[in-house]
User: Fold these one by one.
Assistant:
Number 1:
Amino acid sequence: MTIRAVVRGVGHYLPARVVPNSEFEASLDTTDEWIRSRSGIERRHFAADDETTATMATEAARAALDDAGLGADALDAIVLATSTPDLTFPATATIVQARLGMTRGFAYDVQAVCAGFVFAMANAQAMIVAGQARRVLVIGAETFSRIMDWSDRSTCVLFGDGAGAVIVEGQEGAGATADRGVLSVDLHSDGRHREALYVDGGVATNQRAGHLRMQGKEVFRHAIEKLAATADTALDRAGLGADDIDWLVPHQANLRIINGTAHRLGIGMERVIVTVQDHGNTSAASIPLALSVGYAAGRIRRGDLLVLEAIGGGLAWGALVLRW
Ligand code: UT7
């Protein structure tokens, strides 16, 4: 028998304000046509002034708890992936813990930028296998609108805000590829590529929140090269191949990257969950948002084989094979 982290519930939250590409045409030298054709993005959600990463994460968590039919005290741990925490400390996860009324267990944040949700799920799986927790709420939540340089057209049109959450629970499987739950994980980072994507502020450097800086072409090149490779490695580790995949659930940064990765893996776009047109790039929130939207639409079903993959600042990247 093998214990695995099995998804028990999923949910998401998107702020009410939807911003179409055309809204940027008034303030920037850009067009809806450029944004759509270069990235696939058509609109994104931006948080209201009184919304934060913690408020959105809490809403997504409540939706996931409802879906699982559980109360917050049934959780042993919260792992929240974010690069846009409410405060330098405490961890945003502890703010969510208090808002949910969870009075036991532990909560902490994980920071792997756009790959954060894959890292957080890997962390939850490891804790469940080690017997440190049985039920873990894994959240990806971001307020990237707060770290945009609104004068930089090459970045500010690409990102959005939102939160997605899943609840995973340790369940015994036969140790076979037909088991539900996390079947394999592949994680990487390479700090030599820091300049490709970073925020130019921080507590220990200049005491500012800073703004996102990105060499788009450079990140694009790494993404195309690394995402299919990490997905292949994770599939290999699970003893599965691309033909076994029901759904590729990629990080939603750019439709051209998603197409390129699916093509390299030999997967048709009818087997890919795509939300980038509606959400923009929501960093660590993008995969759980795609999972929740795909599940709510009746596309992702119990027993389906999913591959999650993401790359972002660090660079950090990875993939995870999950039977829903
Ligand atoms: O989530 C973390 C991972 N992040 C990513 O995966 C992002 C990866 N990179 C990308 O998605 C793409 O590189 C971008 C969408 C950021 C850019 O697409 P691109 O095809 O690589 O365009 P580019 O950066 O080469 O820019 C082409 C041209 C440039 O003009 P010149 O130098 O050729 O005259 C840019 O100045 O497009 C210009 N440009 C714009 N034009 C209109 C850049 N941003 C804009 C804009 N509107 N918003």
Number 2:
Amino acid sequence: MSAHINAIGKDALIVVTGAGGFIGGSLVRYFHDKGFTRIRAVDKKPLPDWYQRTPEVECLCLDLSIEENCRRACEGAVEVYNLAADMGGMGFIERFRVECLRSILINTHMLESAYRAGAERYFFSSSACVYNTELQKLPGDRALKESDAYPAMAERGYGWEKLLSEMFCQEYWAERGLKTFIARFHNVYGPHGTWDGGREKAPAAICRKVIEAKDTGKNTIDIWGDGTQTRSFMYIDDCLKGIDMIMHCEQLVATPINLGSCELVSINRLVDLVEEIAGVKLQRRYQLDAPKGVGGRNSDNTMIRRILNWEPSTPLREGLAKTYAWIEEQYFARKAGKRVLL
Ligand code: NAD
């Protein structure tokens, strides 16, 4: 049976890392809105660059690849949510494997520091990139279930780092009794995410390109690959609820679980949806040598349905409409010379 964060006192100290980024920033707001009074948000970015700043939250600017900073971040923590990672969309993780691999420092030091601080629970944001790439060659390939991570053939760099960090989480439970929880996120999107600059992911990039084309009247859109690659995309609100439920489910201690939508679409279909929202039809130019990732990837939600009796269910059309509206606002604010965060 699943529990909820409401099981701990409202004054318990919750630590969220990566809080200057998309999911971490949204998670801080989620806990604040639930009435938690002691939240510590940590990120290495300077404070003015954080995507979201929630009032009354302690904000620390610390580089968590350094052990003593992790000790400081975890002091007095009851629950630790570790979402800090050097990452981005395919364009980033295919080009910057060293940066991705170096996130192992964050995960190593954060686990040890949470353990030493006597934290009750530790959450790790893993990724669908841990799955064996051999199973994802073709568009529409079968959905990935949790056991498909082994035999291991993860995404080079980013995926292997996540897989090893998952193992650290499992061994901290097995050998030292720290309750760890591991969610494998599948493509998260929504307002307050990266939307330009090289780290953005497909939904945000396509929204921005359509907005740009509409604004400039240029009538074309560049698409990475041939558009037949298939993916599923999870709306941020589902991701936050899922993190909360997974972290408070005793059955899931040290057990990796998919957290993703199973609404499978091709990239071409994603473009159709954004065009419908925008009310335009653009000519597509396929960039066949651009980074495009695996051929097909979807989330098998059998396990999450069975254990939590729940799964992410925001329809893509609905989440995209909200995301499009938010990116459009940012786009025109930037055009008007205002400072926006990317
Ligand atoms: P994001 O890039 O918006 O946020 C990550 C944050 O971590 C950034 O603000 C960054 O400054 C911070 N960070 C990086 N290195 C740091 C360091 N050394 N010390 C302190 N902070 C540091 O990314 P996101 O989309 O919010 O992702 C959050 C987590 O979820 C990451 O672990 C990511 O790998 C995982 N994930 C995300 C997705 C997705 O679709 N967004 C999919 C799978 C997994």
